[in-house]
Amino acid sequence: MTQLIEERYFSSDPGQRQVARSLYEGVKDLPLVCPHGHVDPRLLANENYDWGTPVDLLIIPDHYIFRMLYSQGIELDALGISRKDGGAVEQDHRKIWQTVCDHWYLFRGTPSSVWVRDSLRDIFGIDEKITSENAQSLYDAIDAKLHSSEFQPRELFHRFKIEVLATTDAATDTLEYHQKIRASGWSGRVVPTFRPDAVVNVLMEGYAQNIQRLSEVSGIDVTDYRSYIAALEQRRRFFKEMGATATDHAAPIAYTGQLSEREAESIFQRALKGDASAEDARLFTGHMLIELARMSVDDGLIMQTHIGSYRDHNPFIFERFGRDMGADIPTASEFTHNLKPLLDRFGREKNFTLILFNLDETVYSRELAPLAGHYPALRLGPPWWFYDSLNGMRRYFENVVETAGIYNTAGFNDDTRAYPSIPARHDLWRRACADWLAGLVVHGVVDEDDAHEMAVDMAYRLAKQTYKLEQ
Amino acid sequence: MTQLIEERYFSSDPGQRQVARSLYEGVKDLPLVCPHGHVDPRLLANENYDWGTPVDLLIIPDHYIFRMLYSQGIELDALGISRKDGGAVEQDHRKIWQTVCDHWYLFRGTPSSVWVRDSLRDIFGIDEKITSENAQSLYDAIDAKLHSSEFQPRELFHRFKIEVLATTDAATDTLEYHQKIRASGWSGRVVPTFRPDAVVNVLMEGYAQNIQRLSEVSGIDVTDYRSYIAALEQRRRFFKEMGATATDHAAPIAYTGQLSEREAESIFQRALKGDASAEDARLFTGHMLIELARMSVDDGLIMQTHIGSYRDHNPFIFERFGRDMGADIPTASEFTHNLKPLLDRFGREKNFTLILFNLDETVYSRELAPLAGHYPALRLGPPWWFYDSLNGMRRYFENVVETAGIYNTAGFNDDTRAYPSIPARHDLWRRACADWLAGLVVHGVVDEDDAHEMAVDMAYRLAKQTYKLEQ
Amino acid sequence: MTQLIEERYFSSDPGQRQVARSLYEGVKDLPLVCPHGHVDPRLLANENYDWGTPVDLLIIPDHYIFRMLYSQGIELDALGISRKDGGAVEQDHRKIWQTVCDHWYLFRGTPSSVWVRDSLRDIFGIDEKITSENAQSLYDAIDAKLHSSEFQPRELFHRFKIEVLATTDAATDTLEYHQKIRASGWSGRVVPTFRPDAVVNVLMEGYAQNIQRLSEVSGIDVTDYRSYIAALEQRRRFFKEMGATATDHAAPIAYTGQLSEREAESIFQRALKGDASAEDARLFTGHMLIELARMSVDDGLIMQTHIGSYRDHNPFIFERFGRDMGADIPTASEFTHNLKPLLDRFGREKNFTLILFNLDETVYSRELAPLAGHYPALRLGPPWWFYDSLNGMRRYFENVVETAGIYNTAGFNDDTRAYPSIPARHDLWRRACADWLAGLVVHGVVDEDDAHEMAVDMAYRLAKQTYKLEQ
After folding, report:
1. For strand A378-380 and strand A354-358, is the pairing parallel, antiparallel, or unpaired?
2. Structural contact between residues C343 and A372, judged by C-beta atoms closer than 8 angstroms
3. pLDDT tens digit string along B7-36?
4. B343-353, pLDDT tens digit by residue?
5. Residue B447: its pLDDT value, please?
6. Rounded Cα distance, C410 and C355, in Å
7. How far off is chain C from A39, nearest CA to CA, in Å?
8. Between residues 313 and 352 of chain B, which touch chain A (CB distance below 8 Å)?
């Protein structure tokens, strides 16, 4: 059993496993580079952070977990998820925890089950299987740890060997917590990421208010497309001063297309009045992706795009609980035609890097690897969201690397809200890489020396280099 | 060789194989739950059923087999398939059998070859490879068995340990054979399934006659959309009285969309006159899927949809031989947008289950698993048709379970017309499950206790629960 | 290490590996049938061919290699690729070679790296890893071999055991080098393939001149659609006389659709004036695919289609360097609907074979295998381009064979410009087949006798039979 834990996620073939283990040994203790994720900077701004209960830590922020429970008939109210209208939800966290443990069997075979298991064992020192029976004693054990000083986020940051952690922040964010972290003199490196979705997506609820807020924080009175662009550029400068090396952009599809300034202005004005159509949104986002790429060419910020999620698919959940509630569903993507206008302008730029994330695995081998294997500006992000998993990684390696190599990828990022799960996620990736590389070795595709180099590149160097985090 | 047969379909890695074998031991003798298939109820209505020849049993009803032979230049006439015009086809079943055996090499590596091989060995006790040379002696051996009393369908039913068998029946079917089975006092449980395609798809040849027939069997004079709906509801009540727990619906695409009653009426009237267009069919089917879901919410019948087949792709084959002649070709599917109108209305219903089957494997990880991993009403059917195979099952497990878990799936169903192949098909599934679960165990994803539970769930419980067959 | 080389690309499971080795032994020395590729016939027309430098041999003609280098910021000029405008590019081939070797790590895990490694070892006798350090000594070693008489293309042809090699030639080609090969009395069999893309794709630059050239070589004054068709038929006769057994056709999508002669004429006339639109091109290509199929039914030439490449995606590269410069990107394909008009007319023809190649792997199991597993006229080509790789082959086997069997495939072809890599490519295929078949054996799907037969079919017979190369 100990051996099984130590060699988890490796091939059961003894030859491959031995090589995998050796490759893993070479990377398991490397620092963690976390260039994209959703950790709340408040955790690290506060020297005495209060984690709340095990449910606050592990359930309420984790849409992977409550989506699965919801799919089996457990209402989000019963899991303590806050309602937008402030209506009553379950407050008894011991009861919620019991409900979760009673249904933990639902997660058999899922990434959530192994992230939680590995985190409990490796971070909390709790090596027990989650069951109905031990739910309350587990709760006690986790709760006790949470209130110990070694579980303070800053302590964990060092214990996790995080070299750098990037958060994801709205364009209108004042980065108050990042400022606080800097001012505190603490040694951990935490950088923001510029994510202007709420002022780019003209269908976002409250778009005019978001623009109003943009005016306020930028000090530029945004009344038209030109001042809008100027304000975005101002914010980027501010983020860069605060340590940002990257931007991030979500879009339902990868469409890009240049509008005339007149067209852009016209849509922008409709959006301010709340009159923008779905087609306006498509065109404006497609235009802005090119414009944001242009800004990246100018200011050197790495550009990330996350494409393909149909957000808030379940209107009941959206109305009652809001965004990011486990009701986002992937859709088919197309990049070869859609990305061409942007690539025609900036695909050859050597000082520009565009990292692509997407939720349609069929484009890995068909479009993304061929594109990244040609255009100097492109890099492929690691498998995202539902595919941040053992099988998702295997499919990614098998479909991407033969055409793009590993050096047109951006290494790994954990993309997580769940701070204590960061080491488990990197460890899964490192093990999956080691096992895949071991497969290449025992099949005679690469030699063991190259495999060791590749393991380090995939675990550490590629993320650091791609996101310009070498300093 | 004996060992190879006993451990067929298991990994060749000794560690994984040992676990697979142990998991398989725990499920191989469980009863068979068959909640969806196409067995003719006449087989079981008749105490002295005449199977006909080995060709009647194994070739003529099996479009998997004659499609492959046709693809290599053998005309269906030469295989004894009846022509719609009553024209002459090959009558010499020994000659047909010889033709099949002469070309049996075509099936190397296909599911048909292993189903037939496993059925011959396990059901008929014939452990010989099919070749040109032994064609006639095989014919003799099969023929002899077919005419023995132990091969009577009801005998086989018990020998196969079938706990329940659902047939698939037109909405206008009087269920005469089901009535006969019930009346006979025989202990086997055989239930119908309500499949109203011929009165829902307005392009179906003879649509008006089908509606006329609906009037007759329902006792409701169907003259407009309202009486049409009433007649469907009447038939559902009748099917339910006859033991049905489920309905089934085929559609080329997953489109759903509510029509006004006026629009629905208008299309229905055009259809009665034979004037419905392709667009009418798309809209009416999309509307009826929602309406049929509404009926399921009301009467509790499980709803199945089979999406994505381009039926009767080869016009020559359709004109000469009719439907279901191996000329159905899958097409790309989309669920995230298409299913939303239905899910907006009924996706959260706890007393409603919609089981999705489809023929586009790219939607497993991209759309189906995320949808089923969120919406309480959704379950995923097992891999269908061309994917009811070892590789099809592996891809299904690898693409579905990480996101949806196994508890948002509907277990297995054999979906077969070929009654004697039922045990071979369940056995293949059980072995494939055991091997996949063994992989999870040796990779340290689940422990062996959980794997045993999951094996039983996948082999038996999930189908029984999902289709409400617990009684 | 020697063992690893001998058993490269086989499973690391000892059981499977042993069977794979045995299957491979049965096919490794079979002659090479090369029914589709892009070798320049000049190589074999000339008794004293000058290969030029190692860079002329291995880098400049290989878009797999320079695309990857380009993706990492190395300009094609620096790799000695000729510019259309005749502008200066790097001329120092030793310097180019050093650049390539300095960046050879980029190819880790790619097919290029194993093709080059295997070719150097097996053809050149150079068993060294490519590194920065040994770049110049490798250059010397390759250069020396290239100028030895044993490296003359005709010598290699026999050493490689090439039974027949098909080139790919424009419809307007006079086949002068094929004539020269014939006239020389040399025993090697080299045949042309009729590829009329430049006179079928009405958007091709210089379309009118291409048609003018067609008039000249055919001796038919092409002024309208009818004379155009007559000229194509004349060229096909000529190619057939010169030994051709096949035609080949590229198209961005698989669309087929019959035009009236009047519509075809109208588009053709617009094309001659340079006025054809993108829609004209789509319709005319779709029409001509049917017309070319009709010609194949008449003259017996095997028809190949290569579907799904967005050619010359990077406008800068196209303007500066021209076609086939590593900037072609795959797109999604659809066959079920698109191919129906062609199949309705010729899908049942027994004297017609249409071999489908495509770049969208999602259609393997969903559309191509079901179509090829039904229509007598269809065969599936081996995995193409980016998928001519270990993983590409595995995915192809796993997705195609269960539904179509291997006997609806066309065996292997190397599709290469890189003459010295031909044995390495066939060897990779043979090893991949052996390993996949060994998997079927150890999983109890086929027996070892069948696997041996299948191995020979896949390595040799299927290509020979499908392309009518038995003589």
Report:
1. parallel
2. no
3. 999 999 999 999 999 999 999 999 999 999
4. 999 999 989 99
5. 97
6. 7
7. 32
8. 334, 336-337, 340, 343-344, 347-348, 350
**Range of the structural domain that residue B263 is part of:** 2-51+151-466
Structure tokens at A202: 């003209």
Chain B residues in contact with A362 by the CB 8 A cut-off are 362, 366
pLDDT tens per residue, range B282-302: 999 999 999 999 999 999 999
CA B34/CA B31 separation, integer angstroms: 10
Whether A12 and chain C come into contact, CB under 8 Å, resolves to no
Cβ contact B392–C378 (<8 Å)? no
User: How far apart are the CA of B135 and the nearest CA of chain C, in angstroms?
Assistant: 17
pLDDT tens for each residue of C402-423: 999 999 999 999 999 999 999 9
C101 and C161 share a domain? no
Q: Are residues B206 and B260 in the same domain?
A: yes
Euclidean distance between CA atoms C115 and C68, whole angstroms: 15
How far, in Å, CA of B226 to CA of B454, rounded?
A: 45
How large is the ipTM? 0.97
What does the angle CA C235 – CA C241 – CA C247 come to, to the nearest 5 degrees?
A: 55
CATH code of the domain covering residue C416: 3.20.20.140
Whole-structure pTM over 0.90, yes or no?
A: yes
Looking at residue A5, its pLDDT comes to: 85
Nearest to C370 among B4, B9, B329 (CB): B329
Contact C253, C285 (CB under 8 A): no
pLDDT, average across residues A320-340: 97
Q: Which residues of C touch B395 (CB under 8 A)?
A: 398
**Do C201 and C304 fall within a single domain?**
yes
Calpha distance A225→A227 (Å, rounded): 6
Quick check: A366 and C327 CB within 8 A?
A: no
User: Quick one: pLDDT at residue B3?
Assistant: 74
Read off the pLDDT of residues A134-152 as tens digits, 9 standing for 90 and up: 999 999 999 999 999 999 9
> Which runs of consecutive H residues, i.e. helices, occur in C273-404?
278-299, 315-321, 340-346, 362-363, 369-372, 390-404
- Interface membership of B446 toward A (CB under 8 Å): yes
Let me know: does C331 contact A354? Beta carbons within 8 Å.
Answer: no
Quote the tokens at residue C118.
Answer: 């295997």
Taking CA atoms, C124 is separated from C6, C119, C412, in Å, by 17, 7, 24
Tokens of A142: 């986790």
* pLDDT of C229 strictly over 80: yes
Question: Which of these ranges, A160-164, B4-8, B294-298, C440-444, has the smallest mean pLDDT?
Answer: B4-8
Does position B246 have pLDDT exceeding 80, yes or no? yes
Examine the domain organization and report whether C114 and C68 are in the same domain: yes
Please report which confidence band the pLDDT of residue A1 belongs to, taking 50, 70 and 90 as the band edges: low
Whether A275 and A423 map to the same domain: the answer is yes
Residue of C nearest to A407 (CA): C106
**Sequence letter at residue B421:** S
Over 60: is that where the pLDDT of C1 sits?
A: no
Cα(A422)–Cα(A36) distance, rounded to whole angstroms? 11
Q: At what angle do helices B63-71 and B111-122 cross, to 10 degrees?
A: 130
Q: Which of B398, B444, B450 sits opposite A108 (nearest CB)?
A: B450
Contact A71 B374 (CB under 8 A): yes
A131 and A157 assigned to the same domain? no
Residue in chain B lying closest to A6 (CA): B444
Order of all β-strands in the sheet with C190-191 = C32-34, C162-166, C190-191
Number of domains in chain B: 2
Q: Which of C8, C359, C360 sits opposite A443 (nearest CB)?
A: C8
Residue type, A89: V
In the predicted structure, residue C2 carries a pLDDT above the cut 80: no
- Kindly state whether A185 is in contact with chain B, defined as any CB-CB distance less than 8 angstroms: no
The mean per-residue pLDDT over the stretch A266-294 comes to 98
